[in-house]
Amino acid sequence: MPFKFKIIAFCVISLINTSVSAQQKSISITIDDVPNTSKYEKDNFSATLLNVLDSLKIPFTIFINESKITKNSFEAANKKLLKKWIENDQSIVGNHSYSHSRYSEVGFDNFINDIEQGEILTKKYASLYDKNHKYLRFPYNDLGQDSTQHLQIRTFLESRNYLIAPFTIESSDWMFNYVYEYYLNKKEYKKATAIGKQYVEKTIELVKFYEVLSESIYNRPINHIYLCHDNSINADYLTQIVEGFEKVNYKIVSFKESLKDPIYQQKDFYYQKWGISWLYRWMRSSKERYAWMGQAPDLSDIENTYNNILIN
Ligand SMILES: [Zn+2]
Predict the structure, then answer these.
(1) CA–centroid distance, residue 139 to ligand 1 (Å)
(2) How remote is the CA of residue 219 from the centroid of ligand 1, in Å?
(3) 175 Cα: distance to centroid of ligand 1 (angstroms)
(4) Distance of CA 75 from the midpoint of ligand 1 (Å)
(5) Ligand 1 centroid to 100 CA: how many Å?
(6) Domains annotated on the chain, with CATH
(7) Which end of the chain is more exposed for a tag (fewer CB within 10 A), N or C?
């Protein structure tokens, strides 16, 4: 190659590398199982996690189970709190089905009824604040037991202009929360605090792991989507989680912003019912999938504590 072209080639490559390394890492926060009305009742009818998010002034997305409105006898207060989530400037709203049913178990007809029943109140409130309502997050991220079920629901969702809400990172916050609340109820506050701390540390460890995975596959940072729930541990520790994200140079962006990454246009090759990260679903072979899963940070500590509590 003539010297002149060598220099041009070198400059172009340097430019690509520089722009990749300088690319801002980003993550969006998505919250499932909103509204947690039994917690709100305990908290004197306040949505603690919403207050936390509001004070953090960060964008967030919620996935709603409307059946929770009638889980206790305070329907009017529950509706008011759901409306507060929806009217918040920073929120994007989505459907998580009415009753949180598992698609592979209840089957197509029951599941689409659950989707339709789950959008009534949300659509009404969303329209008051000029918000769209087009995302569906599957309960348990169960997209069906086989390729037939997967295809059937995808076709239905497309016909209704629904988009499937993906995620790339989750850290079993529901399991940490179960143990956390167990210790809080027993007034064992030191143990509860240790669980909260462990939750924050494991989440950041998982973020770093998924960063290595995406760098290895895509050669660049990708726009991550974090999945967690409307529960006590997030009400008390999401601030630390967000600080942890920022400490490892992530910017908190909106779900819509995350979805601009072309990786989200990729084909999903996973046809089972388990709620795994989309980073695994985009892998063509189960061999590659399991090889990566085997390297993920170990969660056996919290799993053992959780199982011991369940047994006793
Ligand atoms: Zn859920």
Answers:
(1) 5
(2) 32
(3) 12
(4) 21
(5) 6
(6) 26-311 (3.20.20.370)
(7) C
- Of the pLDDT bands very low, low, confident and very high (cuts 50, 70, 90), residue 76 is very high
Q: Is the dihedral of CA 286, 256, 174, 82 positive or negative?
A: negative
Kindly state the tokens that stand for 45: 């009818």
pTM of the model: 0.92
Nearest to 225 by CA among 175, 267, 277, 273: 277
Amino acid at 251: K
Euclidean distance between CA atoms 133 and 161, whole angstroms: 10
CA of 97 to the centre of ligand 1 (A): 9
Q: Ligand 1 centroid to 27 CA: how many Å?
A: 20
In this predicted structure, the answer to whether residue 15 has a pLDDT above a threshold of 70 is no
Distance 227 CA to ligand 1 centre (A): 10
d(CA 255, CA 61): 7
Cβ contact 130:91 at 8 Å: no
